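If I may wish for something, please sit down with the protein I am sending here and say whether tokens and residues agree:
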Amino acid sequence: MRPGGIVRAVVLLALAAAGLAAQAPFPPFARWLAAVRAGDAAAIAACYSTAPPPQFLVSTGVFTATAREAGFWAAWKKAGLTRLGIALIADRAVGPNLRQLGFEAGIHYRSPRGPKSFYLFVQQTWMRQPAGWRIVGGGRSDLMRLKQPLSLQGDIYAKSADAGAQIAAALRSAKREHKRVLLDFGGNWCYDCHVLDLAFRRSDLAPLLRADYVLVNVDVGEFNYNLAIVRRYHLSIMQGVPMLAVLDSSGKVLASSSDGAFQAARALGPQALIAFLNTWKPAR
């Protein structure tokens, strides 16, 4: 399975998970988590099986070196770890002696250039052994700069909305408040649209958006809805979604992602979005 497949598999587990937040934490996982937060490589390594040796799947392939996996997690403390957030997605027993966990880890640390964050999806398989529960396998996605959605639930784009009327109202507000209009074209089925929506809620992005833009989310359905509006703003549905367009208060197009720059929002970093918003914000 490729690393992208790990991400998709974990997200699909999230869609099926129900009532997970109410479950008691799995004590062996809590032990692993405490060791990671402490940066204790030996304690992390002790959570893994020795017989059989564990197998780890990452983007470069499969490996069995427990020291390598423990070192990956322990290194964040030395890098300036300030917080390790865990969003548990899946926790299920596979028979009496096996347990599978899936979660998103949010790694927050302080670099010489200021606070930074990475996110990744992780899958672990635990086995009950004579010495207790141990990790016998798992995988992790590549590091991502933006938080990834745990599910595709929730409507970002409202198909019932009159997009033309919403844009007209946004232009009036932009003129009154000396702002730009930011059009976000996408669909609720779109993974990267949810990534972008989460990014716009970040503490370093939301204030910029509120201060300088009026945001309008325009639903494109299954690439079969509001297409005349898409073309009006110099965009092509063939580029994929999400797509962004910046308008001045008169409705003139100042910028549009006709090159598909935001289609793979999952691969972007927050600085790219901050730079985009700062580039096209109105002069004050």
Observations:
- The CA atoms of residues 169 and 214 lie 10 Å apart.
- The domain at 3-140 is CATH 3.10.450.50 (Nuclear Transport Factor 2; Chain: A,).
